[in-house]
Known about the structure:
The structure holds 2 protein chains of 2 kinds.
Chain A: H1 3-26, E1 27-31, H2 33-39, E2 43-49, E3 56-58, E4 63-70, E5 75-81, E6 93-101, E7 104-113, H3 115-118
Parallel strand pairs in A: 1-2, 5-7
Antiparallel strand pairs in A: 2-4, 2-6, 3-4, 4-5, 6-7
Chain B: H1 2-26, H2 30-59, H3 66-71, H4 80-83, H5 89-113, H6 117-137, H7 144-147, H8 155-161, H9 181-209, H10 214-245, H11 255-280, H12 284-306, H13 323-354, H14 366-396, E1 402-404, H15 407-429, H16 437-460, H17 467-492, H18 500-521, E2 523-530, E3 534-537, E4 540-550, E5 557-568, E6 571-575, E7 578-582, E8 591-593, E9 595-598, E10 602-615, E11 619-622, E12 628-630, E13 633-644, E14 657-667, E15 670-680, E16 685-687, E17 690-692, E18 695-703, E19 713-720, H19 721-725, E20 729-741, H20 743-776, H21 780-800
Antiparallel strand pairs in B: 2-20, 3-4, 4-5, 5-6, 5-7, 7-8, 9-10, 10-20, 11-19, 12-13, 13-14, 14-15, 15-16, 17-18, 18-19
Helix pairs in contact in B: 1-2, 1-6, 2-5, 5-6, 5-9, 6-9, 9-10, 9-12, 10-11, 10-20, 11-12, 11-14, 12-13, 14-15, 15-17, 15-18, 16-17, 17-18, 18-20, 20-21
Amino acid sequence: MKTRYVIGALIIIAAVSGSVYLLSQSEIQYTTIAQARTLGRKVQIKGRWDTNAQTSYDQNRNLFCFTLIDDEGNRILVEYTGAKPNNFELAHSVVVRGRVEGERFHASEILTKCPSKYEGTSPLVPRTE
Amino acid sequence: MLAQFLVHLSFGMALAVATGYWLGAVRNNQATTVTARTLYYALVLILLCVAAMLFIAIATHNFDYTYVQSYSSRALEPPFLYAAFYSGQEGSFLLWTLLTSIVGIAVIQYSRTHRIEAETMAFYSLVLVFLTLMLVAKNPFTYLWESFAREGTTREFIEAIKGDPTRYEGRGLNPVLQNYWIMIHPPMLFTGFAAMTAPFSFAMAGLMRRQYHEWTRLAQPWIIAAVLLLGIGICLGGFWAYETLGWGGFWAWDPVENSSLVPWLFVTALLHTTLVQRRTRGLVRTNVLLAIAAFCAVLYSTFLTRSGVLGDTSVHSFVEPGYLVYVLLLVFLLGFLVLGVGLVILRWKDMLQHVVRHGMFAISSREFMLSIGALLIVLSAVIVLLGTSYPIVAELVGKPKAAIEPIFYNQLHLPISILVLLINGISLVAIWSYTPSARLAKGIGTAALVALASATAGYAYSIIPNWQAALAFFGAIIALFINGQHILRLLRNRKPRALGAFISHAGFAILIVGIVQFAWTSTTVHLRLVEGESTSALGYTFTLLGKERLEKHLPDREKYRYVVAVEKGGAERYAYPIVYFSDFNKRQAPFLEPGIISTLGHDIYLAPKALDIEERAPTLTLTKQNPQSIPIDSTASIELLGFDMSRAQNSDIPGALMLGAIIQIRKDGVVKDTTIYTYFDGQSFIPKRATVGDFILELARIERNQKHPERSTATFRIGNISFLISNAQRQVLVLDASLKPMINLVWCGFLVLLSGVFLSTIRAFRSQKNTRIASENSDPQLSHSSAHTSATTESTTVQQMPNT
């Protein structure tokens, strides 16, 4: 009689426990450079790229390097397997995903946020010269 | 001014419409309902005017408006100029509102003939009240001097620069959006969102009227239409991402994608559970709750993607639109959730009395299988919802802010999809109420054998990459086989109109096979293609033939089509990856589009990553103390002084030795000493380019002779600036080349699934029309029973089929 509820409940329990387990496995914390160095797992850091330090792209290795400054003002050299993302120069903030290995941050993903797209700074604002 | 006023007026009018319909519903006053209906048409008219005015403002480049200034420019040509209409937040809210109001006209006609207009439209117009309120908050007609008053922009200033086209100019549309997909994808998605309002309104009207069964029949065509429209929108988005954005796939579990998927999953579950209710009179509360969930999922997605709460996690980089919108969206969402759930609680006990289901929902029954299938779909929706909201959830429970990786969705959805496929197969073999085991075994037996044989064979011949994929394949074949049987029977019985459901199930099965194969068998390599040189990879030979300029007449961009020849076994085909520079980002970084060669079995997908120019600069090999003149400039000489191995272990690139050669260059009596470096990774040298005076040098190779150090050589490539500009250069395109097998199965799955839903939509609306004609010729009581008969005939045909 109640078997059908048991089946339903079992499916839900399986899905819930599966989700909880996988959530802990695939979670990426938002953190700072200092914390990322101690955590040693895959994390996400928000910051901006250091315009004073050099960025480089090595075509043979497909390796893009730049220096990231996080909100606490710490710096780290980021290595990303892939080309420089579109709009990188324009990005007012950069989010990197990856882990710290040795002294470098190995990024598997770079997200850029561009003010030109969605934020209001109008070129029609009077110039202040 | 007028436009701004009209936006405010639309809110006032929506408020009046809602009040009218509510009064009409509560007091059962026909006259008020008629007034509300008239006002509703006025509201649609106002919204049409508002939309037309925005179109005109964009077309006439009226940059007084912040919105027009932000998303269009003089250089923007139709049709993209018109797409600017909904490329920003304000415009897309307007499009959503407009489409909802237009769909509402159809809902009025429909609900009117079914004599439930006031109640249905009371809820429907409430949605419009909130949408128009959003428009007031995010007015597309805000003037620049209003938006940027704080920055010091005044009306006088804008008036003054109006004559100067270089200053009175818009920012233009993001080039990423400038392709034909933007013409259809967003309008489709918003039509889907608009259609989602209808089932919700019918469910709420049903609760209000205490007609807990009737609404599922009324809402059915609208539910299927929502599945269709939103489904088309989602698929178009996936195709866009693959075809022009160069994501390499069709689905990235991006929050924006997810937030359109969740409502779709809910409404798809609802489609199946209402079917159960119409047959068994069970799942009464489930259906109302699902209808609320589906609609609130639309609102929640909007909140997630438009309020900026997920700012850090989406590729669709959204920057916060302001606190007001955030609060409004939250109120919007919570308001409808409280309204819906509140009404359910109010009617809870009453609903219980309407649940009739003796002898129903046995484990072997079709209704039970459908319910389990729907449960799985709902779980999928909840999982996607949970994953997408995880950053917020983590913050709320006080954990450090975090996002989750796509693997979360992928791993959970594999077993869910397999189960859904299996249950789909079983549910079609099962009959309502109770299925004898012999019949179940007979119906599934053949399908299971065929599936087992093909999955084993596929796995044995390594067509299927692993056992998980083999399981998915097994489930898909079962579903395909059983749905195929039904399709054949219906065709034989000349009932093509009933095919919809089975076709869409088959499409889903094809889709899952496609996705699984695609995910596990795609291979990608990184290539550096130098013009004229051939590179072998993935079993093909890639040759960069050159590039040609596209869209030369547009001064705001420099767009190139690279031509890559892809050869295998003497057959040569061409791929055209596109790289372009645009004024939009001041030409600082290129925009990239993949080049795709489609064959039946797989796609060759070339996603450009970077550009370079390689010079055919002459090389020069030097030994120590042996100065030589430089080939491109005989007045200058170069001498190798020694080697610098001090940084060999202290390299800029981990794992590669950093080797240096100390050189001296003399020109016109000026002597310059410097060290040029190269990296050696154990196989090849990676030169680091250096500029010395006029010359550009690369250390191409070092050959050390341990026994006779004086015989060690360093080979340089030497050029100069004018040499680089001359035509002695070759284009270099750096790209990711991938082989994407079975991608066509994915598209085919999408297409078959949606064509099935399309057939069902037409059928659902037609059968409603028939019952309507029946009801017009009789009193409403009878119309109810006639609907019953139609439902019964429908199910008997289904029951008969396995016997034929």
